[in-house]
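Two proteins follow. First one:
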Amino acid sequence: MHLARPGRAPVRGAAAPRLGEGARPRRDVTADAGEVTRLRNSAAELHKQATTLRQQLVAQLVDGGVPIRDIGTVVNVSYQRVEQIVQQGAPVAKTEIRAAAPHSGTTTRTKTYR
């Protein structure tokens, strides 16, 4: 496709611009594509490791009695996200959520043993 003007959407049916006679790309695009794939796979693995470590850290802090809002600050997520992490199966000891005070809008976790 050919751009009608710089910054504009391609025009359907227009011939693609041609490189000058004998012109070649300056880099090996196959190698670049392989590097992109390698980096994306590395990023996916690092993301998985970070998620696992965050779940373990949240569980450890909850078990230690740290308030949910403080945990959110430590792991750099909202307190609502901390609640989701806990509910999604972070290996936390049996706990329950209780309101800290009526109308305070905050919650704390306390261990319960059955």
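Second one, unrelated to the first:
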Amino acid sequence: MPELPFTKNEKTGTIYAISDTKHSYPTVSFCRGIWWDMHKLAGHAFVENPDPSRMLQIDHINEDNTDFCREALNTLGFQRAAPHMVDFRIPNLRWCTNSENQKFKWAT
């Protein structure tokens, strides 16, 4: 078994590594050259989109450096990810418009 971080397809046994990239979000590759940001993957799979025609982005709700985020950074060994970027738990994700995402980004 490889060391963390990884995800495993229980049906096929295929193991996928999670890494941080130059744009800082933790990502996973399901086939050569196709990378998905973990928060987008979780959002598309598990977060209901109330308005798919307008809400095209997945936003991290928390922007703080919680203990969970610091622990996740240490556990995953990511060097480039901001602490809130590793919190791709379902309750921390929401769909939003680009405009809303920018407002959330700069809100205090």
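SUMMARY FIELD: Strands lie at 6-8, 15-20, 26-31, 34-37, 57-60, 93-96. The longest helix spans residues 67-76.
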